[in-house]
Amino acid sequence: MTKTRIDHKQELVKLIKQSGYTYGVYEIFNDFLELTACTISNTVDPSHWQEREDRYIKVIKSYDKKHQQLFPQMFYHLVEALEHKTQTTGTEDVLGVIYHELELHRKEKAQYFTPQHLSDFMGMVALGDDGCKNSSPLPRYHKSAHTLRYSLYFQCRSGNLCRKST
Which of the residue ranges 46-50, 82-86, 124-128 has the most confident prediction, judged by mean pLDDT? Predict the structure, then answer.
């Protein structure tokens, strides 16, 4: 028997749209992000715990019980979607894709989502390909006598430090 894989990203979109009929899709998405940020922050940073907890309670209480129960489900599907992307294709801006799928971008204000493959391509063109595929940029700036120049350093998983100057 073959197990069907759940598309967690689509399940999250479905839950947001389902709640959006009552509260508005933008409002649900925005509150979901805020509740998620409060939840994650309170698990790792105790310095403003009570302030974030109070905000969480204020936001969640603005919903009826039925809709309150959907937010943990949304969080579950977000975590699973991120986990699946990490294990299969690497990183992806899952929230950006969802934002676009929910059509929350504003065409009249020219707000558009740039797909991950285009962002990666633009970064490669701007920085060049130094052969280091598993790196993350760590910007370091320095001034020369007449011009402002910068160098981007890449900390590779192998521990090497690569540099690209402009």
Answer: 46-50
